[in-house]
């Protein structure tokens, strides 16, 4: 099986993707609920619902990266297990 990234990079990317997904989903729900701290100033977004939608879309992109990097981690483990056989 072919790998595109190294084993350390795939694990790091997976962990960062999980953190990004959690952060973006929480931020999306906060904008969707129009939390006052995020929407009360003039520099804040005009349409909090559209901002929430953008956060959820970005979380989906991070989920795709998580799936790819998790598959790469599994491929590295599979290849390492097959190389040990005598």
From TrEMBL:
It comes from the Eukaryota. GO terms for cellular component: membrane. Keywords: Membrane, Transmembrane, Transmembrane helix. It is found in: Membrane. It is a multi-pass membrane protein. Its main location: membrane. The chain crosses the membrane at residues 12-31, 51-75. The keyword Transport does not apply. GO terms for molecular function: RNA endonuclease activity. PANTHER family: RIBONUCLEASE KAPPA. This is Uncharacterized protein.
């Amino acid at each position: 099986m072919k790998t595109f990234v190294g084993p350390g990079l795939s694990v790091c990317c997976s962990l960062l993707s999980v953190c990004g997904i959690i952060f973006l989903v929480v931020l999306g729900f906060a904008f969707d609920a129009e939390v006052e701290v995020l929407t009360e100033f003039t520099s804040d977004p005009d349409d909090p619902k559209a901002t929430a939608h953008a956060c959820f879309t970005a979380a989906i992109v991070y989920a795709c990266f998580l799936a790819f990097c998790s598959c790469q981690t599994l491929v590295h483990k599979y290849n390492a297990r097959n190389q040990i056989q005598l």
